[in-house]
Amino acid sequence: MKVSFSIILIAIISFSIFAISEDAGTSGFSFLKVNYSARAAAMAYAFTGLANDASAVFFNPAGLSQIQSKEISTTYMSYFDGIQCGSIVYAFPYDDKTTLAAFSQFLTATEDRTLADADGNYAGTDGTFGISEVLFGVSASRKVLAVLDLGINIKYLQESLDEYVGSAVAIDLALLHQTTNENLKVGIALRNIGKQLTYYTGNEYEEKLPQLFVAGFSYHPDEKFYATLDIYKPLEFDFSGRLGVEYQIHEILALRCGYKSNAKDWRTGGDNETFAGLSFGFGINWQKYTVDYAIISYGDLGYVNQVSLKYSF
């Protein structure tokens, strides 16, 4: 009896992940949990098994091998509470089997400075303080077999909270497998494996990075339609699922939607809880330009918008 190569790979990595997760705790550098791609966002970030554009660096760097020409992509997102964030990626085929990329992402915000009395009780506010986070990374994808691509990210990140600064280095490991069904691909990614380099205080308390294991599937029965599924396992939280659909209704227009299974976390009995976990968006392709837009519902927390612009050389 033949056993699918993708199932074996998923099993091997899953066992190692579960062994790590026994000691997992609350993580720091939480901005690593924010994803950047309006196309992927509209599909509920179910992108690990697809990852066929420059934004693959944020989901599955092995997918970069699918890029046929140089691409530069930038994304802007207006997040909750005035948080502004975005990214830029440059990806290019190096040779017939290797694709490389460089990328950066940022986040900035301003918060009220909270005061406390001698007993630790709330005592009002006194001005504001800034929060800033920046990441620089490089990626490489290599086609090692006709049905298997491997990918890696190497990332340096720095987070500033008022006058306190911490930094870390991390890697992402990933693969993309073409199954015996020509319409089905499987992606696996282990993200944010790393270590803190500098600390916020002299106590040198080490923040754990938000490590994440993802297994993703993409089904592409015809040139106009993609269906995707991602299974997420943050090491400090439970499993969750993401479903996404993309349909090319015209050569210049694609429509997308998606759903996150952990939507119950954002349902608090308000008017918007019905839409929690849903996402919608579209993409417009014109010559060498692509504009993508997504709106994501976080239930009663509100909505988040993302816009991406890509240029293919």
Provide the fold topology:
Layout: H1 5-21, H2 38-42, E1 71-78, E2 84-93, E3 98-116, E4 122-145, E5 148-161, E6 164-178, E7 184-198, E8 212-222, E9 225-234, E10 240-250, E11 253-260, E12 278-286, E13 289-297, E14 303-312
Antiparallel strand pairs: 1-2, 1-14, 2-3, 3-4, 4-5, 5-6, 6-7, 7-8, 8-9, 9-10, 10-11, 11-12, 12-13, 13-14
Characteristic terms for this protein:
single chain; 313 residues; mainly beta; Porin; 14-stranded antiparallel β-barrel; 14 strands; 55% strand; globular
Describe the structure.
The chain is 7% helix and 55% strand. It has helices at residues 5-21, 38-42; strands at 71-78, 84-93, 98-116, 122-145, 148-161, 164-178, 184-198, 212-222, 225-234, 240-250, 253-260, 278-286, 289-297, 303-312. It has a 14-stranded antiparallel barrel with strand order 1-2-3-4-5-6-7-8-9-10-11-12-13-14. The longest helix has 17 residues, at 5-21. It is globular, with a radius of gyration of 20 Å. It starts with a helix and ends with a strand.
Task: Describe the structure concisely.
This protein is mainly beta. The protein has two helices and 14 strands.
Name of the CATH class: Mainly Beta
Number of strands: 14
Number of domains: 1
Order of helices and strands: HHEEEEEEEEEEEEEE
Mean pLDDT: 86
* C-alpha end-to-end distance: 46 Å
Low-confidence stretches: 1-25
* Gross geometry: globular
Structural class: mainly beta
Q: How many separate helices? A: 2
Radius of gyration: 20 Å
The largest beta-sheet arranges its strands as 1-2-3-4-5-6-7-8-9-10-11-12-13-14
Give me the CATH superfamily. Answer: Outer membrane protein transport protein (OMPP1/FadL/TodX)
CATH topology: Porin
Helix coverage percent of residues?
Answer: under 10%
